[in-house]
Amino acid sequence: MQIPPMSIQILSPEVVDQIAAGEVVERPAHLVKELVENSIDAGATRVHVEFYDGGRIVKVIDNGKGMSPEDLPKSLERFATSKISKTDDLWSLRTFGFRGEALASIASVSKLTLTSRRAGDEQAHQLISEYGKRKEIDKVGGSQGTTILIENLFDNTPARLKFLKSDSAENSAIKTTLKAMALSHYDVEFRIQENGKLVAFWPACKSRKDRVEQILEIKPLFEGEASRENVKAYAVFADPHNVAKTSKNIWLFAQNRWIQDRSLQAAVNEAYRSLLMHGEYPIAAVWVEVDPDCVDVNIHPTKSQVKFQDPSLAFRAVAAALRGTLEQAPWIKRSDVATQNVTMPLTQNSSEEFKSTDGLPNFASQPMPQQNLRFQDNSLEVTQFQKKEFSFPASSFPVSSLQQPQTTYQALAESAAQRESFAPKAEEASLGYWSSLEVLGQANLTYIVTQSRDKLVFVDQHAAHERVVFEKLMNAWKGGKVDIQDFLFPLAIDMSPEKVEGLLTMAKEMERLGVFIEALGPGTVGVKAAPLMIKESSLSGVLDKMATEIVDQGGSYSLERTVGDICATMACHSVVRAGQSLSPDQMRSLLRDMDMFPLSSFCPHGRPVSVEYPYYKLEKDFGRIV
Question: Where do the MutL C-terminal dimerisation domain residues begin and end (predicted)?
């Protein structure tokens, strides 16, 4: 059926306002965000938010500077704002609101009650608007600041109302939004009520780190910062032991605005490369600051996205801010080294120190058992623990302990108070964390059993050695000590001109990684040389993926990630295996090598290397303490 042509008409203000409301106030959480941002712009230091029925009723109370009676009706006009006055102001914003659309849009789809009082005014003034129709301004009682009450949201737009999710889902979205607002404003007090019940109270904090710990309820958290030209990134994040099952706990802020950005999210994940297992996501809050004229915040109606002039700088700054701290492994308590228990050395009768010609432990020279030593029957399975004889230096124990001989197991069962009285040797204080652990033996030919002052530590020998070899391979590659193959003729790879240009801009950086390229045409790049460890057949895929990331994110992370995967595979197939017997000296040597690399807590695939069992748990299990 042919639709007859219609003449062009100018839409009525009511229709225009409802169209704008559909963009700015897509759901109640967006409404709450707009109202809270107005409170922050007004200088509020306390914000109280109440919401009912999935956000169809919302009240926001603040102690900001308030509005005059003359400004109340103006605030409900479209494109009326006190925050900008000319075009150039859009590129030097210092406020969160700037369009002057939010209140007008909200008022068109709800009953809105606006109450405000300035400092010095005798009383507050109130304006009521029902679906865009305003009443007269009344004088009412009220404290300094502004209170906005939204009722019957979307009642005049049933089509939009039916697209709202369940009350619990909308309430959850509102609480997520308020978490983000509180994270971005650590110096503002937030009080949140859901259906009349107080669900959150976040007093003002002294720093961003304090606020993140307060809201996410995770301690300890760590900080990192980095700069790339005019882009600065600051991050507060959890260690790789504290992870999430989704990416919802990656909080991103640009110019202190809460945003959604896949590139920056990828930068956070990149920083945790080789530290998390598949399906695990970091917990982090990241702030990116850049010159106002180098970022556009006016590209989305809800202001949830921004556009950087140079996205690659933001990506690299964020990745560096987290990785710089992660590589120091601050979650390892260095104080453990200086407070070690008395040394209980193993007798040196098992085997000689294994030797190495390339700096790596020569586990290959040790015989591989045909099977794990394990006793089995139909009812239970008992894993054999390789017991060793221990010698106890008499001078290391308190005088009372010399009155009668003690067995190995009696020594392990000493109370925490008595263990703390043991004085560490001077040479022990200089040891690294892993080498300071006292080796007790090997369990199931798979786990190195060690102890410190307050806990038993089981170390997965395969995962530990895999990390050591992986780090040594990566260091050799990054240091330019990797073998390179020159191609007789350049290997031609076809891709889009945009990708070719992106690769050529990173040519110098790629040469440091061992890849030498040249342009063979507008849509073809030629590879003159590449690392031997990268198969020629995989170069096309590697470079195409790298070019895509350079265009979208910037940086040379794709190639390094690929080489990292190759190094991880090489390490996995060339290290000690589970089920392989190790001598005490071999175990100590592996622990010493682990101290060379801060990330030794995880294998290259993100699997944990060690498991700890505090002595207090053993004592509780044995009934020694309650």
Answer: 439-582
